[in-house]
Design a protein that fits this description.
Blueprint (H helix, E strand, L loop, with lengths): L7 H7 L1 E8 L5 H12 L21 H13 L2 E6 L2 E7 L7 H7 L5 E7 L6 H12 L4 E6 L8 H12 L2 E4 L1 E4 L7 E4 L4 E4 L13 E2 L5 H6 L4 H14 L5 H5 L3 E6 L8 H11 L6 E2 L4 E2 L7 E9 L8 E9 L2 E2 L4 E3 L4 E3 L5 E4 L2 E4 L2 E2 L4 E6 L8 E3 L16 E7 L5 H14 L3 E5 L4 E6 L2 H15 L3 E5 L4 E6 L3 H10 L4 E3 L5 E5 L2 H10 L4 E3 L16
Parallel strand pairs: 1-3, 1-4, 4-5, 5-11, 6-11
Antiparallel strand pairs: 2-3, 7-8, 8-9, 9-10, 12-13, 14-15, 14-23, 15-22, 16-21, 17-18, 17-23, 19-20, 24-26, 24-27, 25-26, 28-30, 28-31, 29-30
Helix pairs in contact: 11-12
The protein binds guanosine-5',3'-tetraphosphate.
Guanosine-5',3'-tetraphosphate binds next to helix 2.
Length: 542
Amino acid sequence: MSESRKSPLHKEIHRRRTFGIISHPDAGKTTLTEKLLLFGGSIRTAGAVKSNKVTKSVTSDFMDIERQRGISVATSVMSFEYQGQLINILDTPGHKDFAEDTYRTLTAVDSVILVIDSVKGVEEQTERLMQVCRMRNIPVIIFVNKLDREGRNPFELMDELEDKLAIGVRPLTWPINMGQQFRGVYNLHERNIYLFQPGKNVVENDRLLIDDLDDPRLDKELPSDAAQLREDVALIEGIYDKLNVDEYRAGNLAPVFFGSALNNFGVRELLETFVTIAPPPAPRETDSRSVEPHEDKFSGFVFKIHANLDPRHRDRIAFLRVCSGMFQKDKFFRHVRNGKEIRFSRPYNFMAESKRIVEYAFPGDVVGLFDKGDLKIGDTLTEGEEFMFQGIPSFAPEMFKELVSTDPMKSKQLDKGIRQLAEEGLAQLFIQEQGRRKIIGTVGELQFEVIQYRLTHEYHALCRFQPLAYSKACWITSDDPQAIKAFTRYRDRQIAYDKDENPVYLAESKWMLQSMIKDNPEIQFHFTSAFKTENRIGDSVA
Ligand code: G4P
C-alpha cells in the first residue's frame, strides 16, 4: 500500500518512536535527554529538564526524595517532534534501588538509547539494564558520552561493550582524539565531520563541515589528528560490516555513537540516525494472542503508577501505554482484571515543559490517567476483548524487612497504605500467617526509607522495620498440586504469599536456595512473577 492510501491511524502509528533512555547513574542520561529536547524545539533553554533520579548522596534526604517525586512525574514521559516524527522519551530512574521501575518502563518502549561514560566504560547498572533489554530483544543504540574527558581508547571500549553487554556493536561515528584534544566525531554513516568547538551550545552554523577524508582542509584544521583519523576509519571499515538495520531491530546489534552531551557534540548525529532506523510501535503479546498496533480497537496497559504529590489527595497517576487502536477521552473502556467499564475525563499527555489534557492518543503514546485506586501496574484496558498484556513481571527482591505497626490504633491505615504503595510498585508485599505478618521486599535500602516516610506522612501510620535474614525470594509452582501443598506446609517460616496469593519461597542464602532447588525437583522456582513466559531457573541462581 502506498503511504498516501494508508489510514490516518496507520500514519499516526508509523510516525511514532517511543524509546527509553537508560544508563548507570551519572553517565549523562539527563544531559542527553535535554539536548535531544533542544533539537526537537521542545525546550528553549538548557537546564529545563530535571532528572528523574533520586538523591545522589549516600545518606538519603527525605525532602529530596519528595521533591524528586514531583519532578519525576513531569519528566517521566517527554514528547517532541523531529523531522515529522513524534518522539516519546520515557525517562527511567538511574538509582539502582529503583531499578524495578526502570525494568517495568522497558516493557512500554519500542527501543532504547543506552548512555555510557567513556571514562568508566560499562558499569554494574549498565550490565543489568542490558540483560533486561536482551531478554526482551529491545533494539539498543549506544551513546558513549563525555569524550571531552580523558577516557578509554575507543577501540578498547568497543570490545568491552561487545563482551560485557553480549551484543554485536557497529560504530556509526568515531571520535577524533579525546579530552582537551577532542575535536569532534567523524560520521562513518554520512562520511563527513563537523568540527568541534567546545562550549558552544546548539550552534549548528558555526561548525565546519568536511565531507571528504582526503580534503586538505582536514590536515589544516586537524594537523596532529588527520593521519590518525584516516587510519582509524580504514581500520573500522576493515573490521565492521555495514550496519544491518534488521539485526539492530531484532536486538542483536547495537549501533554506537560517540560524543559529549554536555557540549552537544555527536547528539545531532545520534538523533538523525535514530529517526531513520528506530522501530515504530511493535505488536505486543497478551495471554491469548499478539496485538497489532494498527488493529481498530483500542488496547493498552499500565506500566507505572505514581502517587499524587499532594498528600491530602490519594489519587494517583497511572501511566498507560497505548498498544492498539485509538485511546479516547471520556470513552468507556473495559478494565479486564475487574471486569468493570471505566472512563477518563482528564487524560494527560506530556510535553517537555507541560502536561495537557488529550482528546485521543495512538499506539506508542503514553497517557497519564488520574486514578482513585482502580488501577494496578500490569492492568489491561480494552474495548471489550478479554486479554491481559504479558511481560510486566515483578522481579525477585533481595532485601526483606518485616513491617511493624507502632501505633495499634492506626493499623488499618498502615494496612491500606502499604497495599497502595505496593500497587504503585515501590516495593513488594508478602503476607505470612494469614495477614498478621507483612514482609516488605525491595531491591535497595532507599525504598524502605521512602516507604516509612510516605506511610507516616500520607497515611499517618507510624511504623518501623525489623530486619529479616532472607536474601532471596522465588515464586514457586508445580505441576502437582499435592507437591506444592506439602512443600508449603513443611516450610511455613519460609513461605509467604504475594499480592495475588501466589506462594513465594524466602531463602536465607543463595546456598539454601540452591539446595532447595536440588532437593525438590517437583517444585519450580522462578525469579520473576512471569511464570508463564519465563524460563525455569535450574542451577543458575543469580
Ligand atoms: P545521569 O542523568 O545519567 O545521572 O547524568 P547527568 O546527565 O546528570 O550527568 C552527570 C554529570 O555528568 C553532570 O555533572 C553532567 O554535567 C556531567 N556530564 C554530562 N555529559 C557530560 C559530557 O559530555 N562531558 C562532561 N565532562 N560531563 C558531562 P554534575 O557535576 O554531576 O552535575 P551538574 O552540576 O553539571 O548538573
